[in-house]
């Protein structure tokens, strides 16, 4: 029989002792308590009070199904706030990460929404007045989703550097130039800043002949807290 570390024994005693507490203590149970196909995917400070909050993600529908749902559940003290969004053709894990992109207190939560042949569109939720609501991606975009792509003809992704001011994020896209210049790309980098009126574009830079090597580094998320794809 394997030795049980004393730390775990102590934990066991704590759990035994906890039996006298109300069984409905949601805080002790976590955001996925009693919810099918729900997993805690992160501990991130969603409400901005300086302490991490458990984040659960529950899924309905089969992997890659044309239509499914993703429900995000965040434990805030004794209550759970949640929001459900549709998913389309998503294969693999939905969770992308937690990151502060709008500069307001609390992290935004990113998860998969729609997959194409090579494009991926992500949903972002943020806490406003005690509710999880969509933080739209800057720019025209598609249904306010955060678009990334990596293909032969087109690349796209998001950048936020550690030196950026709060609420600043960049969208970098590039199309492969037509022959005979098909060895390089026409790139555009748009800088956005979150304001009280929403996203405002503050700068645009064009790169008529960016190398393939260069734009290949633009794909996906380059944002602290988020996976690249
Ligand atoms: Ca918190």
Radius of gyration: 21 Å
H-E string = HHEEEEEEEEEEEEEHE
What's the helix count?
3
Q: Beta-sheet strand percentage?
A: over 45%
Our measurement of the CA-to-CA distance between the termini, rounded to an integer number of angstroms, reads: 43 Å
Given helix and strand content, the structural type is mainly beta
Number of domains: 1
User: In total, how many beta strands?
Assistant: 14
Measured as a percent range, the helix fraction is under 10%
Question: What hetero molecules are bound to the protein chains?
Answer: calcium ion
Shape: globular
Low-pLDDT runs of 5+ residues are: 1-26
| Main beta sheet strand tally, sense and closure | 10 strands, mixed
Query: Mean pLDDT, as a whole number?
Result: 89
What can you tell me about this protein's structure?
By secondary structure, this protein is mainly beta. It has one domain (26-222). It has 3 helices and 14 strands. The chain has helices at 6-18, 26-29, 212-216, and strands at 38-44, 53-60, 68-76, 79-87, 95-99, 108-115, 120-128, 131-134, 146-150, 154-159, 168-176, 184-195, 198-211, 220-222. The strands form 2 sheets. Strands 5, 6, 7, 8, 9, 10, 11, 12, 13 and 14 form a 10-stranded mixed sheet that branches. Strand 10 (154-159) and strand 11 (168-176) form a beta hairpin. The longest helix has 13 residues, at 6-18. It starts with 5 loop residues before the first helix and ends in a 7-residue tail after the last strand. Mean pLDDT is 89; it is low at 1-26. Bound molecules: calcium ion. Calcium ion binds at residues 45-47, 49, 51, 53. Residues 45-47, 49, 51, 53 line the site of calcium ion.
């Amino acid at each position: 029989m394997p030795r049980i570390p004393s730390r775990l024994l102590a934990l066991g005693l704590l759990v035994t002792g906890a039996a006298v507490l109300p069984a409905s203590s949601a805080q002790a149970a976590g955001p996925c308590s009693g919810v099918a196909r729900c997993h805690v995917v992160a501990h991130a400070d969603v409400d901005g009070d300086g302490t991490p909050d458990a984040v659960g993600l529950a899924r309905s529908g089969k992997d890659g199904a044309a239509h499914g749902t993703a429900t995000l559940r965040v434990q805030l003290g004794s209550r759970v706030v949640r929001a459900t969004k549709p998913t389309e053709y998503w294969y693999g894990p939905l969770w992308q990460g937690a990151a502060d992109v709008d500069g307001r207190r609390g992290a935004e939560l990113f998860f998969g929404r729609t997959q194409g042949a090579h494009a991926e569109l992500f949903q972002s939720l943020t806490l406003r007045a005690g509710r999880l609501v969509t933080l739209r991606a800057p720019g025209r975009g598609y249904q306010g989703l955060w678009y990334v792509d990596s293909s032969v003809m087109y690349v796209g992704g998001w950048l936020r550097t550690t030196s950026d001011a709060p609420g600043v994020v960049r969208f970098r896209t590039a199309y492969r130039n037509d022959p005979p210049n098909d060895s390089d790309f026409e790139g555009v980098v748009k800088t956005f800043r979150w304001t009280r009126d929403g996203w405002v574009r503050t700068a645009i830079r064009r790169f008529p002949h960016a190398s393939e090597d260069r734009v290949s580094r633009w794909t996906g998320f380059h944002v602290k807290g988020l996976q690249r794809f």
